[in-house]
Amino acid sequence: MTTADRDLVSALRAELAALDPARPCDLAAELAGLAQEVGTRDAGRDPVLARLELRLARRSSPPAVQPFDWERSPDHCRMAYLRGLFLAQGSLSVAGGRTHLEFVVGPAAAPVLAARVSDAGLVASWRIRRGRGVVTWKSGETVGLFLRRIGAGAALLELEARQVSRTLRGELNRVLNAESANLQRSVTAAGRQLAAIDQLEADGRLAEQPYVVRAVAAARRETPEATLAELAERLGLHRSGVQRALERVERLALHGDAGGA
Fold this sequence. Notes:
The protein is an alpha+beta fold. It has two domains: 3-152, Roll (Endonuclease I-creI); 177-254, no CATH class. The chain is 62% helix and 8% strand. It has ten helices and four strands, in the order H-H-H-H-E-E-H-E-E-H-H-H-H-H. A hairpin with a 6-residue loop joins strand 1 and strand 2 (100-105). The longest helix is centred in the last third of the chain and has 49 residues, at 154-202.
């Protein structure tokens, strides 16, 4: 990721860590999610998590972390739990316009977590990587929905704005590339047609062609950059008629006859 991307992810995590659960049950649920880091990450190395755990533990009654009952908990508690779990065991990458969020948990916990978030409308995949369970979202839409549901605000809006901007830039580049390719084909075709017209005029065969063919050839010479549609509009013909006339000119130059046309 670029420095700007890393800063944005850091800002998003800091924003989530600064949330202060109003309900005691949400507070306990978030603490339970944060507790899942035991054995997989050293909380002492992350001052944001350390401060968050201390703040929540001071408000918790009783202060000891209680096991989280996913099945019996309401949705707001589940989201608080997932917020804590994301802060403790989650990672977010937005490199190259691609959004990737994953949780690293114990091997046995991965299929359970994947099933739980999928039941919550956030379908995830899971696998075992280097002895750890990894639950993954690669859909930017799903990641955005998850972050919104766990409380992300301003940082998420910035992330979504960047994704929209990247999408628009990508679409614009595709359109420009397509237009450039079309223009190159048109220039190449016009070059062939002009060469064929010159050849037929030099050996006198152009004057023997029907009026439409001669008119199209003259218009092509006068406006080599014009499209078939522009030539047709100028001459009051159908585009297909202009195309057939130019194809006849090229066939005559290549084969010495109109190929039966």
